[in-house]
Target: HPr domain-containing protein
Amino acid sequence: MKEIISTNVLVQNRFTMKKMLEIYQVAKQFEGTTYLYSKHKAVDASNLSKLVSFLLTVKPQTTLKIIVEGNEVQKHLEEIKEMCSNHVSVLRMSEKRLINSAETFQL
Model:
């Protein structure tokens, strides 16, 4: 069953190109979607050009939300957080929410 989880992190240092490529590779291999969100802008981490453009604009002391959707989201989110340990510090982790993609609803 699909899950979604997010965490807020505080960016401590600017992201290097090497770190951006690592994030991209991990997001590309994940069977789900990884989004980064900050200042009313969101980007899919599996799109390299958009990811690089987005992370170049993120300055130190900015809050960044990492949103992961798919299977085994906790493991994937932990992998990204460990990979970025020199660049970000965790502020808050949200609760898991299960998604049944076969059901729809209208607002």
Observations:
- The longest strand covers residues 2-11.
- The CA atoms of residues 101 and 107 lie 16 Å apart.
